[in-house]
Amino acid sequence: MSGPSGVGKGTVIERLLERQPEVIKSVSCTTREPRPGEADGRDYSFVTADEFARMVAAGEFLEYARVHQDLWYGTPRGAVEQALASGTDITLEIDFQGARSVREKLGRRAALVFVAPPSWDELKRRLAERSTESEDATAKRLASARREFEHIGMFEYVVVNDDLETAVDELEGILTAERCRLERADWERLQSELLEES
Predict the structure, then answer these.
(1) DSSP alpha helix (H) spans, 117-186
(2) Which end of the chain is more exposed for a tag (fewer CB within 10 A), N or C?
(3) pLDDT tens-digit series, residues 24-67
């Protein structure tokens, strides 16, 4: 899932996980400081720039990107590979650059969903209400949001987060559709069984 900062991706994901407890959440690494209420290892793995660089050099990320001009975010490879190997659905909260990298590495095993605000003014209001950052940091996030909007076309799905429950309903619908997609299903086994029985 991608979308601009302040659009509510984290909230939508958390609500989805409450409804679908078999789905797991990938915990991204970041070089930014924790916000009030965030816990290391639950919301993000908060690392120094030097530790992040070491992880990049060691090939520990499925994807990583510099975001908001001075912060780094990355998805640890191990948890995603383990989930895929076990057939478990896993959510990644990443920017469009990360989504592009994941698509290149995982192909159609990844479903790309863009979470959009109902309007630009609503996004600005949400960022202002957050009030955990300076005006300069908020301006950087709005500039990043404009870049994110330019890449909406690379996603398969768009969910407008105007009403939380509706957004989660739509995301559940996407999850159901993806689980039923022929290339994900064990179609060869099903086909064989049906042909034998017919």
Answers:
(1) 120-130, 135-149, 164-180
(2) C
(3) 999 999 999 998 889 998 889 999 999 999 999 999 999 998 87
* Contact between 178 and 23 (Cβ < 8 Å): no
Three-state DSSP class for residue 189 = helix
Collapsing DSSP to helix, strand or coil, 111 comes out as coil
Q: Which of 68, 168, 160, 171 is nearest to 119 (CA)?
A: 160
What are the beta bridge partners of residue 66? 72
Q: Exposed, middle or buried: residue 79 (CB in 10 Å: 0-12, 13-18, 19+)?
A: middle
DSSP 133: S
Is residue 4 one of the residues assigned to a domain? no
Q: CA 36 → CA 123, 129, 146, distances in Å? A: 20, 14, 26
CA–CA gap between residue 152 and residue 157 (Å, rounded) = 9
pTM, entire model:
0.82
Strands 61-67, 24-25: pairing is unpaired
Q: What local confidence, expressed as pLDDT, does residue 13 receive?
A: 95
**Length of the chain in terms of residues written:** 198
**CATH number (domain holding residue 123):** 3.40.50.300
Alpha carbon distance 80, 104 (integer Å): 15
